[in-house]
Write a structure and sequence with these properties.
It is built from eleven helices and 15 strands. The radius of gyration is 22 Å and the shape is globular. Helix 1 (about 5-15) packs across helix 2 (about 50-65), helix 4 (about 120-135) packs across helix 10 (about 345-365) and helix 9 packs across helix 10 (about 345-365). The chain is α/β, with parallel strands linked by helices and about 375 residues long. The protein folds into two domains: about 5-100, Beta-Lactamase, CATH 3.30.450.380; about 110-380, 3-Layer(aba) Sandwich (Rossmann fold).
């Protein structure tokens, strides 16, 4: 085995470790850093030579069919595994060739595992189950927000297991992270960066394309620009239960970001949102990362200067518990009025589903396949 092969073997081991989210190779002879799901950023101590970095970069370029040279020194591509690779060569990377690899998680977190690790509790799980599935008639349009590495995509993927299997779902992402392979009629779409002499395919292009393909709902991996307005338009014309993620630190911050450039969503469209779920990251004194749903708000009608936003759940850091802050009448009413039943009936359904999730935790039923099977059986027998 050559020295280059030995160096790349270390890289392959990092690529196969599902606890590693990102790999940063900042240049030849420099320490390789990783982002670990549980421990955060780590200096691995490994160093790669220029030849090893160039060998890997050229293999990615060859596989993607994209140019990579001093004339075209930037490359964004995906590996066959779904991992996303960003490569920069000199002169734009003055310390030498650099590579960032965003890992595509192979093993999906189930909703039960998120209850077990404290990201949510069983009552929040039951509430989100009803909100996403909507008793087959009125799923809630939901935005999941939070900072970098707060678990937005993980939670979004987990709650998508509540979507009934008879629905058609299209996901749209800039960098593919969602994996909805448990939904039979799922179509993933991924944006294409622009290169010299050719036009890229934007998230907004894909979203407009998706709306011609008769989805029940569309899910946008990360809302950043003009696609925000298109997503809310999709919600408004009947693609109920559509969802997306957004970088924001609070529900109020999310509204401000949506209505400001570059998203610039017209204020009057904010009312088509039903739910905002916020995640945050905390660090223990020992350096352990904990991710929690910090707040959930129901979004209602519009006032003169701001939408009606009712707090439902809030995380209490001192007790490490997520507590119900107020009765979620606004959210329950949106589903209940379509079924001509009272919000109290929706409340009972939430409690019933929370009990099911609680029993699943006790029984150790935690894989996506097994939890999904129970959800589908529940729909067949009860709805």
């Amino acid at each position: 085995m050559s020295e280059i092969d030995r160096e790349l073997e270390l890289l392959k081991k990092m690529l196969s470790n599902d606890d590693i989210e990102e790999i940063w190779i900042n240049g030849p002879g420099l320490p390789v850093f990783i982002w670990h799901r549980k421990r955060g950023m780590i200096n691995t101590g490994y160093k790669l030579s220029r030849d090893a970095i160039i060998t890997f970069a050229k293999s990615v370029a060859s596989m993607s069919g994209r140019p990579l040279s001093e004339e075209t020194p930037l490359l964004d591509a995906s590996l066959r595994t779904g991992d996303r690779v960003a490569i920069a060569l000199p002169p734009v990377s003055p310390r030498g060739p650099s590579i960032t690899i965003r890992k595509f998680r192979r093993k999906l977190y189930s909703i039960v595992e998120l209850i077990e690790n404290g990201t949510i509790n069983d009552l929040v799980g039951g509430f989100l189950w009803v909100a996403v599935e909507g008793l087959r008639v009125r799923p809630l349009n939901t935005l999941i927000i939070g900072g970098t590495a707060s678990g937005k995509t993980t939670l979004l993927n987990a709650i998508c297991t509540f979507i009934p299997s008879n629905e058609r779902v299209i996901t749209i992402e800039d960098t593919r992270e969602l994996n909805l392979s448990f939904i039979p009629n799922w179509e993933p779409l991924e944006a294409k960066p622009s290169y010299t002499g050719e036009r890229g395919v934007t998230m907004d292009d894909l979203l407009r394309h998706a709306l011609r393909k008769r989805p029940n709902r569309v899910i946008v991996g990360e809302v950043r620009g003009s696609e925000a307005t298109t997503l809310l338009q999709a919600m408004n014309i009947g693609h109920l239960g559509s969802m997306g993620t957004l970088h924001a630190n609070s529900a109020k911050d999310a509204i401000t970001r949506l209505t400001s450039p570059p998203m610039s969503v017209p204020f009057e469209m904010i009312g088509v949102l039903d739910l905002i779920v916020c995640l945050r990251v905390w660090f223990t004194r020992g350096g352990t990362i904990i991710r929690r749903v910090s707040e959930i708000y129901a979004v209602g009608g519009l006032g003169e200067k701001k939408p009606t936003m009712d707090p439902i759940f809030k995380y209490d850091f001192t007790s490490d518990k997520i507590v119900m802050e107020a009765y979620p009448y606004l959210a329950y009413e949106k589903i209940a009025e379509v079924l001509l039943i009272s919000p109290k009936e929706i409340e009972k359904e939430v409690e019933r589903r929370a009990s099911i999730l609680r029993n699943m935790v006790k029984s150790g039923i935690r894989s996506v396949v097994d939890t999904r099977r129970i959800f589908e059986r529940y729909y067949e027998e009860n709805i």
